[in-house]
TrEMBL record:
Reactions this protein catalyses: S-sulfanyl-L-cysteinyl-[protein] + uridine(34) in tRNA + AH2 + ATP = 2-thiouridine(34) in tRNA + L-cysteinyl-[protein] + A + AMP + diphosphate + H(+)
One biological process term in Gene Ontology: tRNA wobble position uridine thiolation
Organism: Microbaculum marinisediminis
Catalytic residues in the record: C117 (nucleophile), C214 (cysteine persulfide intermediate)
Name of this chain's protein: tRNA-specific 2-thiouridylase MnmA
Main function: Catalyzes the 2-thiolation of uridine at the wobble position (U34) of tRNA, leading to the formation of s(2)U34.
Region Interaction with tRNA: start-end pairs: 164-166
Enzyme class: transferase
Keywords: ATP-binding, Cytoplasm, Disulfide bond, Nucleotide-binding, RNA-binding, Transferase, tRNA processing, tRNA-binding
Coiled coil, from the record: none
Gene3D superfamilies: Adenine nucleotide alpha hydrolases-like domains, HUPs, Translation factors
Pfam families documented for this protein: tRNA_Me_trans, tRNA_Me_trans_C, tRNA_Me_trans_M
Gene that this sequence comes from: mnmA
Primary location group: cytoplasm
Length: 397
């Protein structure tokens, strides 16, 4: 008996017999995914997650998953003639993403809640919901490519459009999840996506892209943290890397590593936030060269290579910012720790951010996983010595 041909989603079924749940945010990208799959004859079901109390974000451009977005998703589903469900995930989202975001900031980190949302909500809870609905796949509007490997499993690759590539935010996706997920926009550009939205006659074709973290509609992170943890925000000292106390601050949540403006002190030279000492409630500042980092210790590493990650040094490419291209690096796997050494320095690396691994520097290179930055070491030299001096000086007080 001849083997059944694979459909456009690499599944051995006719499209009409293939149920696909589409995660619909109410934006252009996910709406086009639903339209494409409907056009290709799939059994499409739209699902939208209500993730937070959207009161103050309603009708505000640049925030996703708000009231207007739910309305837009429902309208698109009606226009396409597909069933649509809204699931209330507010409590789960607060416990898993928002609370963790606040705690991370209070510990002196710079968190990336979108990764946690993908990891714990969309690709965990929503994926299970899709299975419960009898779906063969869960499709999203992320700009990342997914392709079948010779062994039948799937691999992730950077998107065709480097300006839209979202692979940095999806490093924590597991192999089991990747095999169930589909990303129809991975080989498209944003202008092509908008053109399809127009061709489908969707009212949201010209809708602006989301810009803010969805639960921080004002863009001011400190406000949400102060509301969630009012007793945890404490003042402290602003300390130069040479040990001088330059002033006071009202809470480390108002600062991020690499910050140049709004530090609150002036000494006749440009100053940057180079470290945040949460236990000591200190904001450590210094010249730009004190920000350079080449080596990082990672936690919760997710490896997506074909073979298990063995001890030793591995040549990879890595990126520690979503807007930067991957750069050559070495992945150093020890018995108890995993580190990344960048061959060229990076400035303003902060604990809480992600370090994502790639096979090469090529535009559509394969994603090999990544991890969370637990500690970032400064470039060896005088700045490192200065930090130690500052810590010693404060400890003696």
């Amino acid at each position: 008996m001849p083997e059944q041909r694979l459909n456009s989603l690499d599944l051995p079924k006719d499209p009409a017999d293939t149920r696909v749940v589409v995660a619909m945010s109410g934006g252009v990208d996910s709406s086009v995914v639903a339209g494409l799959l409907k056009q290709q004859g799939y059994d499409v079901v739209g699902v939208t997650l209500q993730l937070y109390d959207h009161g103050e974000a309603i009708h505000r451009a640049g925030a996703c998953c708000a009231g207007q977005d739910i309305y837009d998703a429902r309208r698109v589903a009606e226009d396409l003639g597909i069933p649509h469900y809204v699931l209330d995930y507010e409590r789960r989202f607060k416990e898993t993403v928002i609370d963790a975001f606040a705690d991370s900031y209070l510990s002196g980190e710079t968190p990336i809640p979108c990764v946690a949302c993908n990891q714990d909500i969309k690709f965990h809870d929503l994926l299970q919901t899709a299975r419960d609905l009898g779906a063969d796949a869960l499709a999203t509007g992320h700009y990342i490519a997914s392709r079948r490997r010779p062994d039948g499993h799937r691999a992730l690759f950077r998107a065709k459009d480097p300006e839209r590539d979202q692979s940095y935010f999806l490093f924590a996706t597991t192999q089991e999840q990747i095999d169930f997920l589909r990303f129809p926009l991975g080989d498209m550009t944003k202008p092509e996506t908008r053109e399809l939205a127009r061709a489908f006659g969707l009212a949201i074709a010209e809708k602006s892209d989301s810009q803010d973290i969805c639960f921080v509609p004002t863009g001011r992170y400190s406000q949400i943290i102060e509301r969630l943890r009012p007793d945890a925000v404490e003042p402290g000292d602003i300390v130069h890397v040479d040990g001088r106390v330059l002033g006071r601050h009202e809470g480390i949540i108002h600062y991020t590593i690499g910050q140049r403006r709004g530090i609150g002190v002036a000494v006749g030279e440009p100053l940057y936030v180079v470290d945040l000492d949460a236990p000591g409630r200190r904001v450590i500042v210094g010249p730009r060269e004190a920000l350079e980092t080449r080596r990082m210790t990672l936690r919760d590493v997710n490896w997506l290579g074909d073979r298990p990650l063995a001890a030793g040094a591995h040549e990879i490419c890595a990126k520690v910012r979503s807007t930067r291209p991957p750069q050559p690096a070495r992945l150093l796997v020890g018995e108890e720790t995993i580190e990344v050494e960048l061959l060229s320095g990076e400035y303003g690396v902060s604990p809480g951010q992600a370090c994502v691994f790639y096979e090469s520097e090529a535009e559509q290179s394969r994603v090999l996983g990544g991890g969370w930055i637990a500690a970032a070491r400064p470039q060896p030299g005088t700045m490192d010595d200065s930090r130690k001096s500052a810590a010693a000086a404060m400890a003696a007080r």
